[in-house]
Amino acid sequence: MIRSPEFETTLQDTHALALPDAVVRPFVEKDMRRVVVCARFEGKSVRYHAALQKRHGAFYIMFNRKNQKSLGVFPNDYFTVRLEEDQTEFGVDLPPELEEVFRQDTDALEMFRQLTPGACRSVIYWVRGVASPQRRIERSLTVSRRLHQGAKTASDLVKGKPD
């Protein structure tokens, strides 16, 4: 597994972290466009999945307001970051409820795998976007049902209320 050394960084934009070329190079050489980000600041830490993006010849990752708040960082703070190879199938962790539905309905899982990687992530974010485990179960079952009904895009799978 590829794992970068830890490095210090600060917010470059309101939601972006610039990445040193030496840190990104091993990931880019292996054509890995998604990474797991581990950030630490004053005893707090966050871990999340991100896409390596390139702008004006430099690589960066997004660092949203929620993660900034969890870590307690402000625009001028320097904090520690490490990148790791993303070994998840869909570029983000499956919520346990959706994982269980797919374990019981392998046909739905195979149909899900036919979606684009971005569509898969959108659906996963939709399922895990509610706090209640019961609602995540309902959304997971809705995804399965809609896949069987022929849904082929993320918007077809997540639009409207769960069935």
Describe this entry's structure for a reader:
The chain has 163 residues and is of the alpha+beta class. It has 2 domains: 7-85, Elongation Factor Tu (Ef-tu), domain 3 (Beta Barrel); 96-158, no CATH class. Helices cover 40% and strands 23% of the residues. It is elongated and about 50 Å long. Pfam families: OmdA. It comes from Robiginitalea biformata (strain ATCC BAA-864 / DSM 15991 / KCTC 12146 / HTCC2501).
Observed structural traits:
three-stranded antiparallel β-sheet, 23% strand, AF2212/PG0164-like_sf, elongated, alpha+beta, four-stranded antiparallel β-sheet, single chain, 163 residues, 7 strands, Elongation Factor Tu (Ef-tu), domain 3, 2 domains, 7 helices
SSE layout:
Blueprint: E1 7-9, E2 16-19, H1 21-29, E3 34-41, E4 44-51, E5 53-55, E6 58-62, H2 65-71, E7 79-85, H3 96-104, H4 106-113, H5 117-128, H6 133-148, H7 154-158
Antiparallel strand pairs: 1-7, 2-6, 3-4, 3-7, 5-6
What is the CATH H-level superfamily of the largest domain? Answer: AF2212/PG0164-like
Counted up, domains total 2
User: What sequence of helices (H) and strands (E) makes up the elements?
Assistant: EEHEEEEHEHHHHH
What overall form do the CA principal axes indicate? elongated
The biggest sheet, with number of strands, parallel, antiparallel or mixed sense and barrel status, is: 4 strands, antiparallel
Number of strands: 7
CATH class of the largest domain: Mainly Beta
Rg calculated over all Cα atoms: 18 Å
